[in-house]
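subagent[fold] <- orchestrator: predict structure for attached chain, return tokens only, no commentary.
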Amino acid sequence: MSVIPIGSRAPKVRRVALLSIHTSPLDQPGTGDAGGMNVYVDQTARRLARAGVEVEIFTRSTGSHLPPVVEVEPGVIVRHVTAGPYEGMRKEDLPGQLCAVTSGVLRTEASRPAGWYDVVHSHYWLSGQVGWLVSERWGVPLVHSMHTMAKVKNLELAENDSPEPMTRVIGEQQVVDNSARLIASTNDEARQLIDLYGAPAEHVDVVHPGVDLDLFTPGDQLVSRRKLGIPERAHLLLFVGRIQPLKAPDVLVRAVAHLIEQDPTRRKSITVAILGGPSGSGLERPEALVDLARQLGVADVIRFEPPSSRDVIADWFRAADLTIVPSHSESFGLVALESQACGTPVVAAAVGGLHTAVADGMSGILIHGHDPVVYAHRIAALLDSPRELSALARGARAHAESFSWSATTAGLMTSYANAIKEQRGLRTAIAE
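subagent[fold] -> orchestrator:
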């Protein structure tokens, strides 16, 4: 359940086919299906290229205006594969287009010399289905990152949310069974792969996601607040992410309503900012969160903001007193890590990868369950204790500094090399 040292005779990784079929790293995180996985794919691809690896990212084209190929930076290109209608397709409808996607990926490789790619790295189960087929066709190992798992999500389902379908459960199992290596973001995710999907422990590598420590940095809170139009003396609570039941932004709205109900004077001091757009099952009722704020009488203290650029998000983190991450399920929790890198503590649900992303009591607070009253009490206690809040702020940056995209990339490189080495060893054994 860890990356095995490969020694000085490690095979060289020259080219990687990276599959991110249902969402492109070029998409704006925070809306649609774009989120932490998009950031992960973008950041690791860039750093792989800077380490001398050529990376081709394959994703489904979602617009006729998109060029077939986009160079992200030297060594990284995104290929838009035409499969199905450009617009209006939900992630849930994509299994019917995987044959077309696979054909597009294979067509690209067919124009290249044999053995062009050294490894296929697929992200999310839909990509894994394509990766399974093309890796066999090319005779190269498949490395897969789940990011989220149907069995885990169904065990931690939000109230009134829809369970993941059996099609996905079966598809994920097939990908697990046919991957040379599985990348887990945390030890918890590794155990879930082993316990729920029967993954061989020796094929699971734990590689923590990173954070851009140069972009997400502490800064002057007042300067950021002036940029964003936030009152200088306000207590700013921040939520960043897709608006859907899984991410539980309603817990924050309900918690704020309870705070104000218990102490009406807080209405003048609290500002809540919710950055993101509807996604997943949240698309069925895109105005549900706004309606909830009105019903609870707190619409006047909540600012609903659209998804923003990474630079702007960094300013929001610096401006905030606390970032709230009340998700029902998180494979890691990149938002929590980015907030802490900016010196802003996190109040988060004690689920999944958030156990790793947040150092409970040092860089933030983890809460078991999703009771808004509990969240309200913990938030109030922190806002009313500047000394404790300052201590958590100091611990937040220190904790974030133990994660970096460079370390993530090094872990991936080791996993790729191990997969290649193991496959070559298997071929040799078969030949003998």
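orchestrator: received. Logging for downstream: Residues 3-8 have pLDDT under 50 and may be disordered. The longest strand covers residues 54-60.
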